[in-house]
């Protein structure tokens, strides 16, 4: 409300000041000599009448815009809106000119001294000028209206993008949980089967296997909801996880780790390494004669690299791509560099950024 009132006052002041400024150009010098020779009361009355006149024009412009905004949209039918608005403005200004001229003459007679004389040409120029200012006021108001709409639409788009990002984050979290639920039963079944065999063959090894099995699940329970964890903690989890893999796969899978100690305090999304190793084991053979080699190392670009040799299965399992897609989504939400996937005839490599 306060902003609307201020806008009205500024438009009235602007129009009134510039009408006098253009009047100095249109009217002859003799007119202004006579004008300033009138009594002070007559000049004040002239200024007040002009102020009332331009107030009426401003209010007319605002009223026309307000009514037409409800009936003819600038966005839907811009040409029709332009023509109708211009016509209403011109007719409205003419009506105001007639009314205000009558009032002006009445007050002029009341004061007792007529206005300085202007010719027909100056009167015509004045009428054109008044119409021009009426249209200018309408244009300014329309521009303000369109700018407000643009800002409102921009805010809506920004809110939509924020909601979309939130939805993507939620979807990524749901996918991660779904992935864990898909892996867990299979993972539990395999490890319990191995554990039952180890207990019968080697109780000490069975005890160690149980402890590492518990470490893996403790890590998943504690850190599954975290966005980031230090590489040091992830590698502790990986140590326990690889213990299970080695005892399950035997010599069919070889792991080579080479992590620079300076990168151990950098951050990574939890369970990232488990997803990559499971992906390597799922789509490749693990044979003692030709073992699957998985290399995990850091590079100079602050990236963690997981690379495995390609030993394709004869019958490849169906791939949903859920694990890798989940990792990409998590990094996208973190606003970091994207993971890079490289594949040639011999190796499949994934590089994920380490976050400082």
UniProtKB/TrEMBL annotation:
Domain of life per record: Bacteria
Transmembrane segments: 9-31, 43-65, 86-107, 127-147
Domain (Signal transduction histidine kinase internal region) ranges: 175-251
InterPro entries xref list: Bact_2-comp_sensor_kinase (IPR050640), Sig_transdc_His_kin_internal (IPR010559)
Pfam families attached to this UniProt entry: His_kinase
Annotated coiled-coil segments of the chain: 155-182
Keyword rRNA-binding attached: no
Cellular component annotations (GO), alphabetically ordered: membrane
Alphabetically ordered keywords of this record: Coiled coil, Membrane, Transmembrane, Transmembrane helix
Molecular functions (GO terms): phosphorelay sensor kinase activity
Membrane keyword on record: yes
Protein name: Putative membrane protein
Protein's organism: Pedobacter cryoconitis
């Amino acid at each position: 409300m306060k902003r609307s009132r201020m806008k009205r006052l500024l438009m009235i002041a602007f129009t009134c000041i510039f009408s006098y400024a253009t009047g100095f150009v249109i009217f002859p010098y003799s007119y202004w000599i006579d004008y300033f020779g009138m009594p002070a009361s007559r000049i004040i009355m002239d200024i007040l009448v002009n102020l009332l006149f331009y107030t009426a024009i401003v209010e007319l412009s605002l009223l026309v815009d307000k009514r037409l905004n409800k009936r003819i949209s600038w966005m839907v039918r811009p040409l029709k809106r332009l023509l109708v608005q211009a016509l209403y403005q011109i007719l409205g200004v003419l009506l105001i000119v007639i009314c205000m001229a009558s009032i002006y003459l009445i007050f002029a007679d009341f004061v007792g001294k007529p206005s300085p004389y202007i010719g027909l040409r100056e009167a015509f120029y004045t009428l054109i000028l008044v119409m021009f200012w009426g249209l200018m006021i309408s244009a300014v108001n329309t521009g303000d209206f369109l700018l407000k709409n643009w800002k409102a639409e921009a805010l809506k788009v920004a809110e939509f993008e924020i909601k979309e990002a939130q939805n993507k984050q939620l979807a990524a979290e749901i996918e991660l949980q779904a992935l864990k639920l898909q892996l867990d039963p299979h993972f539990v079944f395999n490890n319990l089967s191995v554990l039952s065999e180890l207990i019968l063959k080697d109780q000490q090894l069975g005890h160690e296997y149980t402890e590492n099995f518990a470490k893996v699940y403790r890590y998943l329970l504690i850190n599954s909801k975290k966005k980031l964890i230090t590489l040091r903690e992830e590698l502790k989890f990986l140590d326990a996880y690889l213990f299970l893999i080695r005892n399950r796969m035997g010599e069919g899978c070889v792991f080579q780790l080479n992590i620079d100690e300076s990168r151990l305090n950098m951050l990574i999304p939890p369970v990232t390494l488990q997803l990559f190793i499971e992906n390597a084991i799922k789509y490749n053979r693990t044979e003692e004669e030709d073992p699957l080699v998985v290399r995990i190392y850091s590079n100079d670009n602050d990236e963690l690299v997981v690379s495995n040799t390609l030993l394709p299965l004869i019958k490849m399992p169906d791939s949903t791509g859920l694990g890798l897609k989940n990792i990409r989504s998590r990094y996208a939400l973190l606003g970091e560099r994207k993971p890079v996937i490289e594949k040639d005839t011999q190796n499949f490599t994934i590089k994920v950024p380490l976050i400082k």
